[in-house]
Amino acid sequence: MRINFDEQEKILTLKIEEEIDHHMAGNLRREADYEIQRRNPKRVILDFNNVVFMDSAGIGMVIGRYKIASMIGAKLEMRNVKENIKKIFEMTGVLKIIPIIEEEKENEKIV
User: Which segments of the chain does DSSP mark as H helices, in order?
Assistant: First the structure.
């Protein structure tokens, strides 16, 4: 699994590659937590554009990053979520606390 980080104007984007399963979630958690705490962003965006599979470990990873972001006062959002993964988020209630954003909202500046 690979994860790429991009930060612009206190917005940290985590571009997740491939799949999020039990074997990959641990490394993803560690890398994401380190970058979130180190960069102290106002917003954290999980970009799922290249994620083709996610299991329950992925849900735990997302909820955990929500908690880490909340602890530093940042907002967590998701984008480019494929329909099969979106259904998992809907069924588990994740979308009630973590929104999926559209591109135009992502490009808005933080005031």
Answer: 22-39, 56-71, 83-92, 103-106
Instruction: Take residue 34 and report the two structure tokens written for it.
Output: 């380190």
pLDDT by residue for the chain (111 residues), tens only, comes to 567 788 889 999 999 988 899 988 999 999 999 999 999 999 999 999 999 999 999 999 999 999 999 999 999 999 999 999 999 999 999 999 999 998 645 455 444
Closest CA to 99 of 91, 90, 111, 108: 90
Residue 7 CB contacts under 8 Å (≥ 6 apart), including other chains: 13, 39, 41
**Full strand arrangement of the beta sheet holding 75-79:** 3-8, 11-20, 43-54, 75-79
Give the global pTM. 0.86
